[in-house]
Write a structure and sequence with these properties.
The protein is built from eight helices and four strands.
């Protein structure tokens, strides 16, 4: 999955109007450096009232995550063992995040950093960061550290596709229009995660998140998932 964004996000300033304007073209192509093109089909209110948004998306997430957990179970057990063998501390890293309708939930991932790393510190900028545990370098490179979030999806706290979940103390400063991103469940992958802007803060990509909500449909989610697997495969095949 992409697993294309890290769990510890950097805290930065808002982008300017000129930078926000560039978000309008983020979905201009389905190429390697851009997110999939989707056709605008309505307002957030219209899209959220559709059957897929109200029932179908949750049903698809529950079924898909159940089978993906079974599929990846041997790999997750192996990863857990390797984490314990190569570094001191727990297997999992847990974090409070903002979910659907601003409800808080605990997100899970495999621990890739040393246990003395502050939970809400800036994310590592390279694999040479001394905060990264030995096995954590490979986990972060492959993004397999995010596999435990499949359990968040199965519980209905997250979706396979949606905006990345924000940290509570940052979401408190959101304006009303920005808070619309919390009208859907946060996702393991999404339109913003596939965009060239994915290296910035979550708040930098809110306009992309709202574009995703405006075009919410099974077909668009399917395209994002396919694109995610393609990016994951391309980035980890030699």
């Amino acid at each position: 999955m992409p697993f294309l964004s890290r769990n510890i996000e950097p805290i930065g300033n808002d982008v300017g109007e000129s930078q926000r304007h560039q978000d309008d073209s983020l979905t201009a192509s389905f190429g390697s450096q851009a997110s999939p093109k989707i056709r605008q089909t309505g307002t957030p209110v219209e899209r959220l009232s559709s059957f897929y948004a109200r029932r179908g998306k949750y049903l698809f997430d529950a079924i898909a995550s159940f089978f993906l957990i079974i599929l990846f179970a041997p790999l997750m057990v192996l990863i857990a063992i390797l984490i314990k063998l190569t570094s001191h501390g727990p297997v999992f890293f847990s974090h409070k995040r903002v979910g659907l309708n601003n409800e808080l939930f605990v997100i899970h991932k495999f621990r890739s950093l040393h246990i003395d790393t502050p939970s809400y510190s800036e994310k590592p900028g390279s694999t040479d960061d001394k905060r990264i545990a030995p096995f954590g370098k490979w986990l972060r490179k492959t993004s397999l550290d995010e596999l435990p979030q499949l359990f968040n999806v199965l519980k209905g706290e997250m979706s396979l596709v949606g905006p990345r979940p924000e940290m509570p103390f940052l979401a408190e400063n959101y304006e009303a229009w920005e808070n619309q991103r919390h009208h859907v469940r946060p996702g393991m992958t999404g339109l913003w995660q596939l965009s060239p802007r994915r290296q910035g803060t979550i708040r930098d990509g809110i306009s992309v998140d709202l574009e995703y909500i405006e075009n919410l449909s099974f077909w668009n989610d399917f395209k994002i998932l396919i694109r995610t697997f393609k990016v994951f495969w391309d980035n980890n095949t030699y």
